[in-house]
Amino acid sequence: MNNRGNLTLQELNMSRRSVNFFDKEKDLDIRLVRKIITESFQAPSAYNLQPWRILLIKSDEAKQLLHGLAYKQAKILEAPITLIIVADKEGYEADNSAWKESFTKKGIERTHKMIDGARSLYGKTESTKLKFAESHGGLLAMNLMQLFKAYKMDTHPMSGMKFEEIKLAFNLKDSEEVVMLLPVGYRDESKQLSVKRDRKTYEEVVTEI
Asked: What is the pTM of this model?
């Protein structure tokens, strides 16, 4: 199964858009969605911990709940699915299944030293924990957006939501944070995309030291 076009990474980067209007009549192949999501796990993470989780919202009931908690933005109801990108602020702890490989290959003592090292780096304060979670969730989310575009699907990253209420409504752990919402589908081609806006210049963004 290969629905990918022949776009280069540079072309994908320049052509990806945050789509406001999704075609409600055009469904997604869930097998392909699963493949894309699995491919997205190649995103980098500290110690290969992959401290992320995804809630795939597809039922009408779940969509209606999320719609109300995302300020009733139409994208949630129009898109066939919306991904809730979740990251664990304490994903460096020993109960993360990603440590299993290290326990097997490097042994218990060495792995616990690695866990202690990760904890000292990322678990110092609530601020460092939050940075750990959100930076990793952001890496996964960008990978997802580029991969969906490679398979000719559209997305729209969203941060306009009631974060704590979503956390409660979808039974997230205390240590988990909602990083963003990502509606996925095909854009409604009957509606015009907004004109792509200018990006800042290199000189505005980069300080060479």
From this structure: 0.93
